[in-house]
Write a structure and sequence with these properties.
The protein is of the alpha/beta class and 279 residues long. It contains eleven helices and eight strands. The strands form two sheets. Strands 4-3-5-6-8-7 form a six-stranded parallel beta sheet, sandwiched between helices. The protein starts with 8 loop residues before the first strand and ends with a helix.
């Protein structure tokens, strides 16, 4: 959000402005490294300190701890915690292909603490969710490493022929489908206030479940009911031979409430630490 007491400066080497929320006050077109080297050369008498860096590292550690506490409070299957579980359960090394829409955003938010090797892949098709299963299978074949493809239910149905190809080519890959009843990202846009129009044309929930789609291609779909089931399914499928499908059913509105609660917990934890340091 735009605030009156914070001045934002964007430095990037190209003329294309990346400021969709219109929060940047000044756009500087320059090579970042060369710009900062020139600033240091002209900053006579300036003594660099690591105070700012240490402050942010400390805030990052506090945020991670608060986030982990909030995620582990989710006993029901929820998408935010799924990313934390993936971060913990994937082998070292591994590859993960992340679909567009909410998955790529949630991966960025809820997978911050993994230290083991993990190669992350994504692409963006013409409609954002084109070719997810196909591209994920190509990643598995190209890297020859244990590979997980994470997609929402809409994206999963958008490229069902990719399942047939993955099976026919005997690809070793695990598809994890977040079955949250449609396009959750549109719940965050003004169109969500349009009732039936939003539900029909944007959420686009269908009676055909992802598990039924997988079974239609001769693939067994695992539908866990508890987090222990999720962990067992990941352990059994990731890196195993053949195509596996894991369908994690969540409630997109509950996912959204959990995300809001975690965000509030992180902010509160950091503010509390800042207040303690100021005493």
């Amino acid at each position: 959000e735009q605030t009156s007491d914070v001045e934002r400066i964007s430095i990037q080497p190209h003329v294309q402005r990346r400021d969709p929320n219109h929060v940047v006050d000044h756009h500087v077109i320059a090579d970042e490294r060369r710009l900062f080297e020139a600033m240091l050369e002209t900053s006579h008498g300036f003594e660099a300190t690591d105070t700012w860096q240490k402050m942010h590292h400390r805030a990052d550690r506090i945020a991670r701890a608060a986030m982990e506490t909030g995620l582990l409070n989710a006993d029901a299957l929820e998408e935010p915690r799924l990313w934390w579980e993936l971060q913990r359960e994937l082998p070292d090394p591994a590859s993960i292909f992340v679909s567009n829409s909410m998955p790529i955003r949630n991966a960025d938010l809820y997978m911050p603490g993994r230290e083991e090797a993990l190669d992350v892949y994504f692409n963006r098709g013409l409609n954002g969710i084109d070719g997810i299963e196909s591209t994920g299978a190509d990643v598995a074949r190209g890297t020859m490493s244990p590979t997980v493809v994470v997609a929402g239910d809409v994206a999963f149905r958008h490229d069902v022929s990719g399942l047939a190809t993955a099976r026919r080519t005997e690809t070793d890959v695990t598809y994890v489908v977040v079955d949250n009843g449609g396009g959750a990202i549109f719940d965050k846009l003004p169109i969500s206030e349009c009732g039936s129009v939003h539900e029909r044309h944007f959420v686009a929930e269908r009676d055909l479940r992802p598990s039924e789609v997988a079974e239609g291609f001769g693939l067994e779909a695992h539908v866990p009911e508890h987090w222990s089931d999720v962990r067992e399914s990941l352990e059994a499928s990731v890196g195993a031979r053949g195509v596996d499908v894991l369908v994690v059913r969540t409630d997109r509105r509950r996912d959204d409430r959990r995300a809001d609660a975690i965000r509030a917990q992180v902010v509160e934890a950091i503010d509390r630490k800042i207040a303690e340091d100021a005493r």
